[in-house]
Amino acid sequence: MPTTTFLHMADVHLGYQQYQSEERLKDFHRAFRQATDDAIAKKVDFVLIAGDLFHKASINPITLLQAKRPLDQLRQANIPTFAIKGNHDGARYGSQFSWLHYLEADSCLTMLDPFSPNGFELTPVNGTRGGYIDIKGIRIIGLPYIGASTEPHLLDLPTALQQLPQDNIGFTVLMGHFGLEGEVPGLNGAISHNIIAPLRKHVNYLALGHVHKPIERDGWVYNPGSLEACGMDEREWRGGWYHVTVDTNSGTHEVKHIKSKRRPLHRIKIEVDKFKDPPALYDAVRIELEAHRPALALEPMKPVVEIWLDGILAFDRHDLDTGYVEQILIEVIDPLKARVRNNTRATEFEIAPDEYLDRAELEQHVFTDLIIRDSRYRDQAETWAKLMREVKVMSLADNSPEAIVEAISRRMSLLDAETKNGVDSELVSKLAELKDKLEAKNVD
Questions:
Q1: pTM of the model
Q2: Given 136, 163, 166, 224, which is the most exposed site by the fewest CB atoms within 10 A?
Q3: What angle, rounded to 10 degrees, do the helices at 22-41 and 61-76 form?
């Protein structure tokens, strides 16, 4: 049985210095080397890169070497590489020449691009230019990233494919760089299954890139996922590459998805609602990290660890020191990169839809809810709220600073008496500070 084998990868993102980490820059290169080394070890007939070999249009010399050396090794092993442009691979603004073009000019790869100054032309590769190439009974067609123009060109493609000569072609591969509907929520420009369905009569293997999540559909649509996680939200998407074996006589194929060995990324989520003050939260963070430390210590590489703070804070959001939380993470886990995401929310105002409040009542309600957010002053929320509104009304009425200070002094006298009955002394202290500031302003 005559068989042809190839390796299909996408979304390599060389040059991505994730989290400003030099080691993460190397991780993306290591993942690429895994794939190319596997291609050489298995002696595949060719390699496909379905877009985004690079992370950005402007790269440094190190990134160029990270791309060139593995591609040179493939070439030395007589394994040609065919690539299409992804949305990250474009030329710099004002230029028509990208780093993919440089690699093509240096015979490291062949770009498949059916677009020319004359428009869309599905012609065979001639030298280094063309939309498709035939190799060992397999036709490889390239459709680079073209954004919003992807859908209309996919609709026109079946007619163009039908008009191509089919001599000695037993299997057709179409490379594309676009996402599919229903796979990643909120993905812009995703293509529906109805758009690609007509291609199935002409295409045996749709080799996709762009979405970093592995996808397989209906035995002919394949997206390998990115070789490395390009974000914390991708930590559970085990991307890699496909090793594909094709029987060109029957037009059938077998695929094996090989997961790349990645640096582990972990997110530790902590709900903040039950902690009345920052020290209580910091203690809980330390305890949670201590519980995770044994498992994280077993990882083959130092992980990237992110603490995700979520929920409704019981204290003022400005009192939360995320820098200190990060220091706890470094002290307990010592990860490659420590990150803290503050997704907390303040206590939200809730007013029943059938409840009518006049302006004064509404202001009192809002001030009270603001104070309730901080558990340290929650028991005296009404007292604080009344004073806040009183000062606000007096200020708007152009009362003199002396009058405002006098009003605060009267309130403090009442609080001094109430302190003996359990009113928080810190509340009195805060009011004293406010009084002193107003008096100082009056002196100025």
A1: 0.78
A2: 163
A3: 10
The alpha helices in 202-333, defined as continuous H runs, are 278-297, 322-333
- Pick 358 or 167 by higher pLDDT: 167
Give the CA distances from residue 17 to residues 53, 58, 63, 420, in Å, rounded to whole numbers and listed in that order. Answer: 14, 13, 10, 60
Cα→Cα distances 389→98, 352, 367, 438, 442, Å: 62, 22, 8, 16, 21
Can you tell me whether residue 59 is helix, strand or coil? coil
Both tokens of 338, joined, read 């420590």
Q: What are phi and psi of 371, to 5 degrees?
A: -75, -35
DSSP of 426-444: HHHHHHHHHHHHHHHHHH-
Rounded CA-CA distance 362/407 in Å is 22
Architecture of domain 3-259: 4-Layer Sandwich (3.60)
For the stretch 242-294, pLDDT in tens is 999 999 999 999 999 999 999 999 999 999 999 999 999 999 999 999 999 99
Measured distance CA(303)–CA(333) in Å, rounded: 9
Model confidence at 92: pLDDT above 90: no
Q: What is the pLDDT of residues 289-317, one digit of tens each?
A: 999 999 999 999 999 999 999 998 988 88
Q: Which residue has the higher pLDDT, 379 or 132?
A: 132
- For the purposes of burial, counting CB atoms within 10 Å of the CB of 131, is it exposed (0-12), middle (13-18) or buried (19 or more)? buried
Domains of the chain, residue spans: 3-259, 265-345, 359-443
Q: Whose CA is closest to 285, among 273, 270, 297?
A: 270
Which residues in 304-329 are b (16+ Cβ under 10 Å) and which e?
bbbbbbeeebbbbeeebeeeebeebb
By DSSP bridging, strand 304-312 and strand 3-9 are: unpaired
Q: How far apart are CA 72 and CA 109, in angstroms?
A: 9
